[in-house]
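quick one before i forget lol
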Amino acid sequence: MLLIKLDATDSTNAYLKDLLVSQNPPDGTVVQAVWQKKGRGQLGRDWVSDPGKNLTISILKRFKGLEVSEQFVLSIITSLAVAAVLKKYQVPNVQVKWPNDILSGKQKLCGILVENMVKGTQLNSAIIGIGLNVNQDQFPPGLNATSIKMLTAEEHILGEVLKDLLGILEQQFEKYLHKSLESAIEAYEKLLFRRGEEVKFRTATEELFTGTLLGIDASGRLMVRNSQSTKAYGFNEIRMVIQE
């Protein structure tokens, strides 16, 4: 494994993407930043992280024979790996908020951003960005975030958390990649925040509706049932409205 440690960068995903263009880094290359100045989450949202307090990394994964239609399995595997690490550190009530935020209760602990490199109908590589709150103990008002330290009253060495995360991530890839997609979805749905509950959603056109969150389909779309029908929604089509 090649580990590239940076004092600061705008985005570890962007740094690794540039490296992929200019060089030929090996599978499993990891970029870690002490300070990520312009971290990004899903839909271009900012990821706020105090320098030196949290784990802000990007990982290069190369593939053979992975269809574009199966790309959400990468988010599933990464979510399961992060959840396993948090359970190891005795974080309570770990859940996955679709598509790939990791929570303790209703508070956000980790964000995942997977960017895929497509060739034809197949993925040949992906950059997996992970922002995991480890030792930060204060967050801006309204962010509803927490950290491992805040939940367990223990500070952790980032290098050790990184080692655990990479090891468990590799185990999860070995367990699920190119194998039964159904088993990966089943494991993901067991952790799915608000599954089986009535949830308020907001559409991309700012319309509000209420439906029962059923799970996800094989493409990673969220399955929601209302009084009229059951429908699958993509990442940019709806978001949950969570009452704090």
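fyi The chain has a mean pLDDT of 92.
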